[in-house]
Amino acid sequence: MPFQITIEPLTIESFKPYGDVIQLEGNKNVIIANQGTAKRVNHVAKLENLRSGPSPALQGAKPNMCIFSSAPRPTTGGLFQVKLLERHPYSSQVFMPIHEQGVTANPDLPSYLVIVAENGSDDLPDLRTIRAFAATSTQGINYKANSWHSPMVTIGRRVDFVVLVWENGVKLQDCEEAPITPVLVDLKPSFKNLSESKI
After folding, report:
1. What are the backbone dihedrals phi and psi of residue 128, each rounded to the nearest 5 degrees, phi first?
2. What CA–CA distance (Å, rounded) separates 130 from 84?
3. Which of the two ends of the chain, N or C, has the fewest CB atoms closer than 10 A to its terminal CB?
4. What is the DSSP letter of 100?
5. Which of 127, 101, 118, 126 is nearest to 184 (CA)?
6. Which helix (H) or strand (E) holds 125?
7. Which of 189, 191, 92, 188 has the alpha carbon at shortest distance from 136?
8. Which residues of 114-145 are buried (b: 16+ CB within 10 A; e: fewer)?
9. What is the rounded CA–CA span in Å between residue 40 and residue 1?
10. 105: exposed, middle or buried (C-beta count within 10 Å: 0-12, 13-18, 19+)?
11. DSSP assignment of 68-91
12. Cα→Cα distances 110→31, 32, 40, 170, 193, Å
C-alpha cells in the first residue's frame, strides 16, 4: 500500500535544499527601479549549466526557453499519487506560471504541486525524504541541477508556464526518470473543493 505525505506551503526557506522559489514576497534584496515605478529583485534563482565547458563525455548544451501548458492531474479523495520522479543531471530548470485557466478570484490560492526528494546512496530518489509543496500562481520555482522532482502537476485547472532549461538533445543527459514505489500526497490542507476523479 502506498505511504502518504501531507502537502506543505511553498516558502523560500523550505525549498532551499532543492532550489529557489521565485517570488517578490519575502525577498530581502528588493530595489526600486524605473524612476520609482517598479520593484526589482536581482538573482532570484541560481541558473546552472554544467555542460558549458569542453568534455569528451558530454555534449555542450544550449538554453531552451519554452512553454509548458499543463493539464490538471486526476485526484481521488483529496489525494494525488506520485509514481515517477525525474531529474536534469546537468541543468537547473525554471517553471514560472504565466496563465491559469478560469482564474477570476484570488491568485494566491494554490494551483500546482512541487514534489521533490533528495538523492539516495544508490543514486536514486530517497523516498524517506520526499516532500510536496503547494505553489501559487504568483510563485515560480527553480530546481537545482540533479534535483529529483515530479513532472509538473497542476490541480483543478490548466496552468501555462514559461520554462528555462539547458539541453543538448541527449536523452539521459537532459532528463533521467526513475519509477518509484507509489506515494500518496494529501492535498486537502491546501486545495479546497477538489473535484473527484480517478487516480
Report:
1. -70, -15
2. 12
3. N
4. E
5. 127
6. none
7. 191
8. bbbbeeeeeebbebeebbbbbbbbebbbbbbb
9. 47
10. exposed
11. EEEPBPP-BTTEEEEEEEEE-TTB
12. 27, 28, 24, 34, 12
For 16, phi and psi rounded to 5 degrees? Answer: -55, -40
pLDDT tens for residues 137-190? 899 999 999 999 999 999 988 999 999 999 999 998 999 999 999 999 999 999
Question: What does the alpha-carbon distance between residue 154 and residue 116 come to, in Å, rounded to a whole number?
Answer: 15
142, amino acid identity: N
Q: What is the pLDDT of residues 73-113, one digit of tens each?
A: 999 999 999 999 999 999 999 999 998 877 565 667 888 99
- Cell for 156? 483543478
Cell of 5: 505525505
